[in-house]
C-alpha cells in the first residue's frame, strides 16, 4: 500500500485529486499548510503531493525531498499541465514531465 499525503490544495481541487487517486493500492491522507510538517512525521507517507502553482512550493518540495530522502515529492500544476517530480534518494533533484492522457497521476505516485 502506497501512502500519499496530499498537501494544501483548494477544496475543489482536493476533491478532484481524491477522485483521481482512488485506487486499491493507494491510501490518501491530507495536510493543510500549517500542519504539513507534523503530518509528514505522524503519517510517514511514501509520496507527498503539492500544488506547484502555490507560492513557495518549489522551495517546500526541495526542502521535503532533502529532509525526507525516502519520500517521493510530486508537485502538480493546474495552470501548466506539468508535474515536477522529486524522486526518492535524489537529494532534492527533480525533473518535469508533462501531464497527458498517457501520463497518469497514479503512475507518478504509485
* Number of helices, counting only DSSP H or I runs of 4 residues or more: 4
| Number of beta-strand segments | 6
Whole-angstrom Rg: 13 Å
Helix content: 25-40%
Sequence stretches where pLDDT stays below 50 over 5 or more residues: none
Mean pLDDT: 90
Inertia-based shape: globular
Q: Encode the helix/strand succession as letters.
A: EHEHEHEEEH
Walk across the major sheet and give the strand order.
2-1-3-4-5-6
Strand content: 25-35%
Distance N to C terminus: 9 Å
Main sheet makeup = 6 strands, mixed
| Classification by helices and strands | alpha/beta
Characterization of the model:
This protein is of the alpha/beta class and 110 residues long. Helix content is 31%, strand content 26%. The protein has 4 helices and 6 strands; from the N terminus they run E-H-E-H-E-H-E-E-E-H. It has helices at 11-20, 36-43, 57-67, 105-109, and strands at 2-6, 26-30, 47-51, 72-76, 82-86, 95-98. The protein has a 6-stranded mixed β-sheet, with helices on both faces. The radius of gyration is 13 Å and the shape is globular.
Amino acid at each position: 500500500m502506497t501512502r500519499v499525503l496530499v498537501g494544501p490544495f483548494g477544496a475543489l481541487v482536493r476533491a478532484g485529486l481524491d477522485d483521481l487517486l482512488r485506487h486499491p493500492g493507494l491510501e490518501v491522507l491530507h495536510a493543510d499548510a500549517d500542519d504539513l510538517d507534523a503530518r509528514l512525521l505522524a503519517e510517514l507517507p511514501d509520496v507527498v503531493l503539492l500544488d506547484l502553482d502555490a507560492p513557495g512550493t518549489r522551495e517546500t518540495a526541495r526542502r521535503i525531498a532533502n529532509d525526507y530522502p525516502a519520500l517521493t515529492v510530486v508537485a502538480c500544476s493546474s495552470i501548466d499541465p506539468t508535474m515536477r517530480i522529486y524522486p526518492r534518494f535524489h537529494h532534492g533533484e527533480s525533473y518535469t514531465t508533462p501531464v497527458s492522457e498517457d501520463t497518469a497521476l497514479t503512475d507518478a505516485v504509485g
